[in-house]
Write a structure and sequence with these properties.
ATP-binding; EC 6.1.1.9; Valyl-tRNA_ligase; ligase; Anticodon_Ia_Val
């Protein structure tokens, strides 16, 4: 028996246990042994993470696909897991140690600290997984993986060693994003560009051979900079090759102020003649653009900062090289001064010598570490790199050829832009938590890369024996006695970038590098659902690694979803205080309501503006479904064995079979095309409008009437359509549908494993072979061209039933609309005249007179050759229906009201258009504010159009 009230929390807890106990989501179930697989790998959330709205959207969409394909008979593997999240996890544990006043990481030592991290992971690392289960994610939780599992770590080591052997991993000294607080290189994704109010300093650099004088412009060149503290590492000044002001200076030297070093003026298009003075200082060791300029012109790289962001000048051979006398004293004075304190002191010193021309306020973006909050420093250091350019070529070709496609397709351009301009990928991090780089260094710094320490020792001893650094006897002794080789070779302390292990996720989670059955069956995967912000960091790298090691693309489709913003369109952030917690919404409205909201708003290429009211609205939708199912149960509606909906005799029942088949096709095709919002919209309209508002209402007289064959058929059809609704709605709202599926018919099988109303037909061997050539064998059952019905209703259409019931619905709907427009009170009954009705209408109308009168609040329904004078005329499916309203409404008062409403709408339109026509407003206002004005204009335009239509109708009644 269905409970009176819908209580999401009770249902969700119970259904989660049912699914888990029945192994409903397990891949490779015996009943799916011969089914075609469908594989999705979850974008692994950080082990430190908590469910946020981006997770909720991403995993809801993945779950829709997985539940849909599971119901279509596929062997679904939704591979779950978490990422070790090097920096985030290390910070969490270090913060915990500090709060508990326990020894820090350095005091503990690497081994003890890592033990502590693993302990934390065991205690707290499942938080995000449990939250995903609350959302209803139907992953195969028995296969949960972690990027630092033994098997995945084995894959990481193998990939590193093989790429190094092939020359695709190497060590190099380049600029990296350096976090001076965390003391590690970080990826671009971990850098936040923050707009700050600073200054632009215009500095005079004396020209060699001329006597410097601040009053003599010919004695110096002016450079503009936001970072005067890095000028100590300048090795050049760049001007645009076509800038006439500096043509005669190109190739000459200037004297670096305060330092005295000679640096060259070079011609480079990087310098913008329209910005600043048109001349820029070049500091290759402290700016990414300058690094490239320096490479083009062979300029020296002089790093003047240390790991903590302090000036590092003493004992700095690069800095001290070729310095004139007296400069060393300056180096001593500024040595180990913090970069921002140094900036102030250096500017003061420059001003005292007349080297500062002027200082201007300047707003610009400054990179900050997203976790540490400190200003990120471009830092010249030795790091490990992947030759991404070489690996990117086949990954680019795979998307160009269509082996992998992006949805929406416009994201392919972003992918190509990034990949075709790809830089070496820095993969080393100065952390302890992560995959330690499998590289060992000999006494002379020679590197030995190997999968194990024993292998590295063997290579090293063989090498140094050959080089006669040690004797063969010493080599044999070291090989046999670990103590004797202690300190002879030392392991690289750095760990790998988290994205390195994540790049292997589609195949490492399946057991690679071992030849496991899972690798053979579930790779390549079918779809990847992810956000646009990690197309380069994750998607592109999975493409590169998958093609290189598996010789196949890792997925055939990449669906890129948009951002979830607040209801005004602003990006959610803690600083703005507009973050919406999905767990709070689940507590308040249930997981199904949140899931359906996100799916219904997930239009391709459009950000989601999430309002709590929308979630509440879809909670009401769930309640509507609940009550409809209770109504069916209370009226003893059940599907008898052998019931065939296509053989129904009653027009109303044939109509609902027709509408069900139509909706099934719409939902199926929309999910296949990743149009989640269209699929959700279609099933929503069908449940609320077609089934609840019309079918159940029109069926009530039969259900509440005397027993008859029509009543029996209607009971069966009400239950049958309800069951089809539960199937179609299950991927979107799994908890409530599974509960109703169980309690409405006490079924033995789970809805999660029930057949979808439309299922792919098994292809012939010839079709399978043909498709394997073009799209790959795992996509054989996706093509809509091969979708065939498993039930009679799937291809069922009944134009005659649709014409009759559709006419009733359209007629009642239009009458209701006019009554609302004209402010006719519900208690006031109006007459209806069917003017010049066709024979078909005259034949069907008497069957529905009582229903139409009741639902449209009519006093009478009659036929006439023409519409009476003073009647509002409605065009219903090509025929005229007239409502005589003389004496029913005050036409003059109603016209005045409509004129007033139209004037108000026009004022709203004018106000919005005035703002949108203001270029300054559009340029300076926040994106969400501009979008809000556009929405106001569109809403006012729609309101005006509706009011004008009502005014035209009113004229008919006057």
């Amino acid at each position: 028996m269905i409970e009176k009230n819908y209580q999401p929390a009770d249902i969700e807890t119970r259904m989660s246990v049912v699914w888990e106990d029945s192994l409903a989501f397990k891949a490779g179930r015996p009943d799916r042994r011969d089914a075609v697989p469908f594989t999705i790998v979850i974008p692994p959330p950080n082990v430190t993470g908590s469910l946020h709205m981006g997770h909720a959207l991403n995993n809801t969409l993945q779950d829709i696909l997985c539940r849909f394909e599971r119901m279509r008979g596929r062997d679904v593997l939704w591979q779950p897991g978490t990422d070790h999240a090097g920096i985030a996890t290390q910070m969490v544990v270090e913060r915990q140690l500090m709060e508990r006043q326990q020894p820090g990481r350095r005091e503990m030592g690497r081994e003890k600290f890592l033990e502590r991290v693993w302990q934390w992971k065991a205690e707290s690392g499942d938080t995000i997984i449990n939250q995903l289960k609350r959302l209803g994610a139907s992953c195969d939780w028995s296969r949960e993986r972690f990027t630092m599992d033994e098997g995945l770590s084995k894959a990481v080591v193998k990939v590193f060693v093989e790429l190094h052997r092939e020359g695709l991993i190497y060590k190099d000294k380049r600029l990296v994003n350096w976090d001076t607080k965390l003391l590690t290189a970080i990826s671009d994704l971990e850098v936040q560009q923050t707009e700050v109010k600073g200054h632009l300093w215009y500095l005079r650099y004396p020209i060699e051979g001329k006597t410097f004088s601040p009053e003599d412009p010919s004695s110096f060149i002016v450079v503009a900079t936001t970072r005067p503290e890095t000028m100590l590492g300048d090795t050049g000044v760049a001007v645009h090759p076509e800038d006439e002001r500096y043509q005669k200076l190109i190739g000459k030297n200037v004297i670096l102020p305060l330092v005295g070093r000679k640096i060259q003026i070079v011609a480079d298009e990087y310098s913008d003649p329209e910005k600043g003075s048109g001349a820029v200082k070049v500091t290759p060791a402290h700016d990414f653009n300058d690094f490239e300029v320096g490479n083009r012109h062979g300029l020296r790289r002089i790093s003047v900062l240390d790991r903590e962001g302090c000036l590092d000048l003493l004992n700095n051979e690069d800095y001290l090289h070729d310095l004139p006398e007296g400069a060393a004293q300056f180096a001593e004075e500024f040595h180990k001064v913090d970069r921002f304190a140094a900036r102030k002191r250096i500017v003061e010193r420059l001003e005292s010598f007349g080297f500062v021309e002027r200082i201007e306020p300047h707003t610009h973006t400054v990179p900050h570490g997203d976790r540490s909050g400190s200003v990120i420093e471009p830092y010249l250091t030795d790091q490990w790199y992947v030759d991404a350019k070489t690996l990117a070529k086949p990954a680019i070709a795979a998307v160009r050829s269509g082996e992998t496609t992006f949805v929406p397709k416009n994201w392919e351009k972003t992918y190509f832009d990034w990949m075709e301009n790809i830089q070496p990928w820095c993969i080393s991090r100065q952390l302890w938590w992560g995959h330690q780089i499998p590289a060992w260094y000999g006494p002379d710094g020679k590197v030995f890369v190997a999968e194990t320490e024993e292998e590295a020792v063997s290579h090293a001893l063989g090498y140094y024996v050959e080089q006669e650094v040690i004797t063969p006897e010493q080599g044999r002794e070291m090989a046999l006695d670990r103590n004797k080789r202690e300190g002879f070779i030392t392991r690289d302390e750095d760990v790998l970038d988290t994205w390195f292990s994540s790049a292997l996720w589609p195949f490492s989670t399946l057991g690679w590098p071992d030849e496991t059955p899972e690798v053979q069956r579930y790779y390549p995967t079918n779809a990847l659902v992810t956000g646009f912000d990690i197309i380069f960091f994750w998607v592109a790298r999975m493409m590169m690694m998958g093609l290189h090691f598996m010789k196949e693309v890792p997925f055939s489709t990449v669906y890129i979803h948009a951002l979830v913003r607040d209801e005004k369109g602003a990006k959610m952030s803690k600083s703005k205080g507009n973050v919406i917690d999905p767990l709070h919404l689940i507590d308040e409205y249930g997981a199904d309501a949140l899931r359906f909201t996100l799916a219904a708003m997930a239009a391709q290429g459009r950000d989601i503006k999430l309002a709590t009211s929308r979630v509440e609205g879809y909670r009401n939708f769930a309640t509507k479904l609940w009550n409809a199912c209770r109504f069916a149960e209370m009226n003893h509606c059940a599907v008898p064995e052998g019931f065939e909906p296509a053989k129904a005799k009653e027009t109303l029942n044939r109509w609902i079979a027709h509408e069900t088949a139509h909706t099934t096709r719409e939902v199926t095709e929309a999910i296949e095309a990743y149009r989640f919002n269209d699929a959700a919209g279609s099933i929503y309209r069908f449940v609320w409008n077609v089934y609840c508002d019309w079918y159940v209402e029109l069926a009530k007289p039969v259900l509440l009437g005397p027993d008859s064959s029509a009543k029996d058929e209607t009971r069966a059809m009400v239950a049958w359509a309800r069951d089809e609704i539960l199937k179609l709605l299950h991927p979107f709202m799994p908890f409530i549908t599974e509960e109703l599926w169980e309690v409405t018919a006490k079924r033995e099988g789970l809805l999660a494993l029930a057949p979808w109303p439309l299922r792919p037909v098994e292809p012939t061997p010839e079709q399978l072979a043909m498709l394997a050539v073009t799209t790959g064998p795992t996509d054989a059952l996706v093509s809509p061209a091969w979708v065939l019905p498993i039930f009679d209703h799937a291809d069922f259409t009944d134009p005659a039933a649709e014409a009759e019931i559709g006419w009733v619905i359209d007629l009642v709907t239009q009458i209701r609309s006019v009554r609302a427009e004209m402010n006719i009170a519900p208690a006031t009954l109006t007459a209806l005249v069917l003017a010049g009705a066709s024979a078909e209408t005259k034949e069907r109308a008497p069957r529905w007179t009582d229903v139409i009168k009741r639902m449209a609040r009519l006093s009478d329904m009659s036929f006439a050759d023409r519409a009476p004078d003073g009647a509002v005329q409605l065009l219903v499916r090509g025929e005229v229906a007239a409502l005589p309203l003389k004496g029913v409404i005050d036409v003059a008062a109603e016209r005045a009201r409509l004129d007033k409403e139209i004037a108000k709408a026009e004022a709203d339109i004018k106000r919005a258009e005035s703002k949108l026509a203001n270029e300054k407003f559009v340029a300076n206002a926040a994106e969400e504010v501009v979008e809000e004005e556009r929405e106001k204009r569109e809403a006012a335009l729609a309101r005006k159009a509706k009011l004008l239509e009502a005014l035209e109708r009113l004229k008919q009644a006057s």
